[in-house]
Amino acid sequence: MHQAPESSTIGDALRAASKRLAATSETPRLDAEVLLRHVLGYDRTTLFLHLQSPLTIAAERGLTTLLERRLAGEPVAYLTGQREFMGWPFGVAPGVLIPRPETEILVEWARARSPLTTVVDIGTGSGAIALSLAAHSAPGWAGQIVASDVSAAALTIASENRRRLGLNDRVAFVRGDLATWCQGPVDLLLANLPYLRPDQIGTNPALRAEPRLALLGGDDGLDLVRRLIADLPRLMAAAAAVGLEIDPSQAATVASLLQTTLPGSEVTILPDLAGLPRHVIARIGAVAP
Questions:
Q1: Per the confidence metrics, is the pTM higher than 0.85?
Q2: What would the CATH number be for the domain defined by 10-72?
Q3: Domain covering 86-284, topology
Q4: In the chain, which residue ranges form alpha helices assigned H by DSSP?
């Protein structure tokens, strides 16, 4: 009499998925876990409480499909439709840049600047910066956050994130080219603009699925950053601050541009999680550190 084969468990599926992804992903275990949680509808705690439970055939098929797409180069965030940022789940899709952990440093710095009247986020993408700032601000805060993007697809996703987070009355979205739509004065301006060079995109397979509009910043990566900095004297209040995310190789150049364009401002550079110079900050007038 032949014995029926035992069903594979969720733990078996996690180990097998991690092994399949090891050759193509820098974080195979994490990728496998996120995809498996997505298929099962589990949070992280529930997943680990059920590692010995059998995996259903439907879940196994769903996981296999996602693994094949991941092996073909699709980012995990696009496969699951979301990426966590500052503790909040943000919806993402192929038409918008996936939020990165290093950008959370810029938001944390912005949160420390209080009180503020007008905050502007240029190149908002999924709305991660503006919406996180609004979500973490004090309940009684009476300021205004306006976020813009040139991409209609990105603003559609950002608006849906605003609705899901219950922030319709705290953040306004505008479609426009950089800050040309803004009259000022602005107390705090934040921007994570496209800053990569063509060669940086072409040699990085992890970026192939993301929109070039959100990545490419011209031959040296600074086309949009230069344009925005040149517009700052018109935009900024007498006591204000600017925070820009850039490629580490651009830090010195961007700091010099800010110092030249905003004479007398205090320009500093903040490191990212890897210790690389990632954010350039300019404080104008009598503003707090």
A1: yes
A2: 1.10.8.10
A3: Rossmann fold (3.40.50)
A4: 10-21, 28-40, 44-49, 57-71, 76-80, 103-111, 128-135, 152-164, 198-202, 223-235, 251-261
